Amino acid sequence: MSATEPLEVWIDQDLCTGDGICAQYAPEVFELDIDGLAYVKGADEELRQQPGESVPVPLTVLQDVVDSAKECPGDCIHVRRVSDRVEVYGPDAE
Ligand code: SF4
Prior knowledge:
Layout: E1 7-11, H1 21-25, E2 30-32, E3 38-41, E4 47-48, E5 55-56, H2 62-71, E6 77-81, E7 87-89
Antiparallel strand pairs: 1-5, 1-6, 2-3, 3-4, 6-7
Bound molecules: iron/sulfur cluster (SF4).
Protein name: Ferredoxin
Cofactor: [4Fe-4S] cluster
Keywords: 4Fe-4S, Electron transport, Iron, Iron-sulfur, Metal-binding, Transport
């Protein structure tokens, strides 16, 4: 995979434990809402709350997002290529 290939990330809130690890690792992309679950947010700071909604992964925080997906206790952070929607980090990655 090319390091510059555009990626996007989404969270399966059904499995989120609300521990907040992702929001600690990459607060630019992840935030806990008042319902106690984590959501992704875009450059506009708006949380994406529709199921499966994704945001682009900024290259500047790519490693933090990847680490979040690896450490996520709920195994519910999915990072995929924009071009073909293939998961590259997360529970469904090969
Ligand atoms: S790390 Fe995973 S389980 Fe924990 S708050 Fe973030 S999305 Fe939810």
